């Protein structure tokens, strides 16, 4: 049977991935699914499993480097409203894996629920954030997560409760194919005070990111107790370019890609930075971007 048979209304072939990523580069997905329901999601996952086709999930594309030669197999995009809902019950907020983290943060703050405001300004989706336990300023998304529903590679829906959830620095035990939704336990506080707190976090985060450009990627994990940006600056690498990829001069742990940049340029620049930082500071930097 054709991989796409019966799925023609939500699976496309040869879909360019650059527009879905922050770096805006790289090739196409062999197959690209935008399911409109959980049933369609599961059906496509099961079909991939039967036909031995690799499936991956695309979130907000803020941590992805797509190969210039494209991505074989199926890329699943959870953009339909069925995967982006946000509901609040008492102190618990549940959000779909495809929901934007920024919407989750502003919804929580609007309801006077504290605990996620430190993530204000962090790009991407709930699924992407939980996959890599995104965070900063001493806060990460895992700290408030009490439950998550996932879909396994064989198409089974499983609920992970606090006992099975483990989060550490930019790492998460949620490594199943799809994070379908997550529930956060928050604290009820005064909403206007909380709004001010969120705005402060937002301003601090925006000031630590390149402004005025979309074609940007966050390059390296901070080594324990250190800042990757400071190490890159110490190695004298601000503004260093390889092809169309450049180390941001103001915020050295970001890479800026020009419209003619390739994924190869980004990789070569990342290697150059790793090599120079090692030479000058003795430290090993690990790339944060997920490579497809
Ligand atoms: C300007 C900028 C600033 C950033 N600042 C920070 C920061 O301060 N702290 C930080 O930690 N990161 C930061 N990042 C990196 C990035 O924003 C985070 O890693 C973010 O959580 C990625 O989410 P996403 O939805 O964009 O995931 P994507 O980039 O789409 O995907 C990343 C990974 O998550 C997986 N994934 C995505 N959705 C799902 C899902 N529903 N189920 C299962 N797996 C899924 C993908 O398969 C992939 O492996 C920054 C990036 C940029 C561009």
UniProtKB/TrEMBL annotation:
Keywords: Cell cycle, Cell division, Cell shape, Cell wall biogenesis/degradation, Cytoplasm, FAD, Flavoprotein, NADP, Oxidoreductase, Peptidoglycan synthesis
Major enzyme class: oxidoreductase
Key word Cell wall biogenesis/degradation present: yes
Main location: cytoplasm
Ranges for domain FAD-binding PCMH-type: 24-189
One GO term describing the cellular component: cytosol
Cofactor or coenzyme needed: FAD
Superkingdom as given in the UniProt entry: Bacteria
Enzyme Commission number(s) from the entry: 1.3.1.98
Annotated metabolic or biological route of this protein: Cell wall biogenesis; peptidoglycan biosynthesis
Active site annotation, chain numbering: 170
Compartment annotation: Cytoplasm
InterPro entries attached to this UniProt entry: FAD-bd_PCMH, FAD-bd_PCMH-like_sf, FAD-bd_PCMH_sub1, FAD-bd_PCMH_sub2, MurB, MurB_C, MurB_C_sf, Oxid_FAD_bind_N
Molecular function GO terms recorded: FAD binding; UDP-N-acetylmuramate dehydrogenase activity
Reaction catalyzed: UDP-N-acetyl-alpha-D-muramate + NADP(+) = UDP-N-acetyl-3-O-(1-carboxyvinyl)-alpha-D-glucosamine + NADPH + H(+)
GO biological process: cell division; cell wall organization; peptidoglycan biosynthetic process; regulation of cell shape
NAD keyword on record: no
Pfam hit, one: MurB_C
Family to which the UniProt record says this protein belongs: Belongs to the MurB family.
Function: Cell wall formation.
PANTHER family linked: UDP-N-ACETYLENOLPYRUVOYLGLUCOSAMINE REDUCTASE (PTHR21071:SF4)
NCBIfam families, A to Z: murB (TIGR00179), PRK13905.1 (NF010480)
Name this polypeptide is given: UDP-N-acetylenolpyruvoylglucosamine reductase
The species this protein was found in: Blastopirellula marina
Native organism taxonomy: Bacteria, Pseudomonadati, Planctomycetota, Planctomycetia, Pirellulales
């Amino acid at each position: 049977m054709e991989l796409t048979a019966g799925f023609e209304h939500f699976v496309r072939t040869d879909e360019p991935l650059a527009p879905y990523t922050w770096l805006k580069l790289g090739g196409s997905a062999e197959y690209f699914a935008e399911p409109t329901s959980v049933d369609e999601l599961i059906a496509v996952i099961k079909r991939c499993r039967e036909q031995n086709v690799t499936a991956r999930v695309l979130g907000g594309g803020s941590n992805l480097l797509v190969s210039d030669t494209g991505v074989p197999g199926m890329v699943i995009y959870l953009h339909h409203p069925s995967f982006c809902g946000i509901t609040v019950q008492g102190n618990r907020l549940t959000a779909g894996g495809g929901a934007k983290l920024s919407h989750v943060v502003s919804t929580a703050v609007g309801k006077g629920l504290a605990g996620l405001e430190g993530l204000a300004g962090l790009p991407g989706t709930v699924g992407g954030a939980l996959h890599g336990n995104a965070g900063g300023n001493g806060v990460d998304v895992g700290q408030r997560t009490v439950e998550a529903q996932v879909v396994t590679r064989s198409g089974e829906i499983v609920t992970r409760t606090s006992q099975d959830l483990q989060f550490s620095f930019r790492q998460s035990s949620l490594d199943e194919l799809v994070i379908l939704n997550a529930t956060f336990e928050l604290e009820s506080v005064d909403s206007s005070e909380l709004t001010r707190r969120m705005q402060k976090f937002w301003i601090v985060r925006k000031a630590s990111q390149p402004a005025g450009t979309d074609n940007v990627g966050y390059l390296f994990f901070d080594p324990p107790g250190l800042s990757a940006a400071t190490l890159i600056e110490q190695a004298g690498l601000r503004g260093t370019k390889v092809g169309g990829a450049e180390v941001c001069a103001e915020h050295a742990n970001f890479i800026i890609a020009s419209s003619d940049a390739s994924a190869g340029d980004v990789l070569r620049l990342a290697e150059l930075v790793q090599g120079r930082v090692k030479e000058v500071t003795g430290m090993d930097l690990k790339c944060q971007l997920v490579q497809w």
